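Practice problem. Given the sequence and the SMILES for pyridoxal-5'-phosphate, write out the predicted structure.
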Amino acid sequence: MNPIERVDRENIWHPFSPMAGNKPIAVKKAKGVYLHTYEGRKIMDAVSSWWVNVHGHSHPKVSKAISRQAAKMEHVIFAGFTHKPAVDLSKTLMKILPDPISKIFFSDNGSTSVEVAIKLAIQYWYNQGKARKKIIALEGAYHGDTFGSMSVAERNIFSAPFNDYLFEVEFIPFPSGNEQQSIAAMKRLVSDETAAFIFEPLVQGAAGMQMYDPEVLDQLLDIARQKEVVCIADEVMTGFGRTGKMFACDYLRNEPDIFCLSKGITGGYLPMGITAVSERIVQAFNVADRTKAFFHGHSYTANPLACAAANASMGLLMTKRRQLDIQRISEQHEAYLKNFNLTKGIKEIRQRGTILAIELEVSDAGYTSDIKERIYDFFMDRDLLLRPLGNVIYILPPYIISNAELKKLYTAIDDFLGTL
Ligand SMILES: Cc1ncc(COP(=O)(O)O)c(C=O)c1O
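Answer key:
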């Protein structure tokens, strides 16, 4: 065992793995789509390091932007002060988000972007003296690991020890295969007491890349809109091109009141959460009365290094070349699926833009499915990081992945399916 791994095992608490038996692989450097280990392995990162990486690892433009910014100003308080990297990022986001969005609020990660969104939605009604308390979410939802974000998500193994401490939320059936039930539940639940409706648009990532159509989401949003419910789109995973468009909500007729953004915003370099808010919500806070201010702020709000990374990453993302990459990956997935032989053991195949998912037929479906380790090991033996979501194998690659690298992934998946 190399010295790094030994110290790691003694002193570091890793997320998600049971503590006993956890064997992290020490990464020496990461470049492009590959993670290089101390043992000389070159592992293809086909899941964008928990869905954050966009342009490949250690991209020279983003790295340079961070180091230039670090030489000028590493971090300053963002209460009562501002800076150019934050202002530049706000300008870019205003250009690509729908028109009603008029302000962005900075925080640190996806979970906090959701916390802020929920708190804003609740305070929006509070500031107007209206008693709206109910929140509606989708079955199977995942919105993060903090208490608020856990509350608006499915109760499962992630939340089990904390369920008694989570606030109550009304869940509607996941709208795929159950469209009419989902719509009926929404009609039944939405009332003058509903504060907010939160959803992962078109793809529920952690649930196993579960997908549903824009048409049904639009119908759900229509119902919510009739009662002026605050609609919150959690685009933490789907944002920045993953679904083939800049945002999954770009497939919709309706425009949400609040967007939660994180992961890909900095290209996968530094943590940052953004809650983008529409003018309608902003207006309820735009008063001199201090009791109506939004008392929420993290120490590293609008960290200039993270903003510099985001500005460089957004610059790259908006180039014609990167947009063509997104299109190319989507087309490669489609071509693979067109010739895909439905072998035994497969429950469903799903694709939206650059995300491809294959759900296996198992008796213990879900995140803790026994087949998870077998899938992980099979691909890692081939130096492919395809970390499954339980019984769901998926590809969610950095956009610089080549067609030859995609082909390698498809072939390995075929090989694995052949073992079922
Ligand atoms: C849809 C969604 N929301 C929120 C989060 C939480 O983000 P973070 O892990 O950055 O707190 C995730 C993370 O996977 C996510 O997929």
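Check your answer against the key. Residues 109-111, 114, 142-144, 200, 205-206, 234, 236-237, 262 surround pyridoxal-5'-phosphate (CB under 6 Å).
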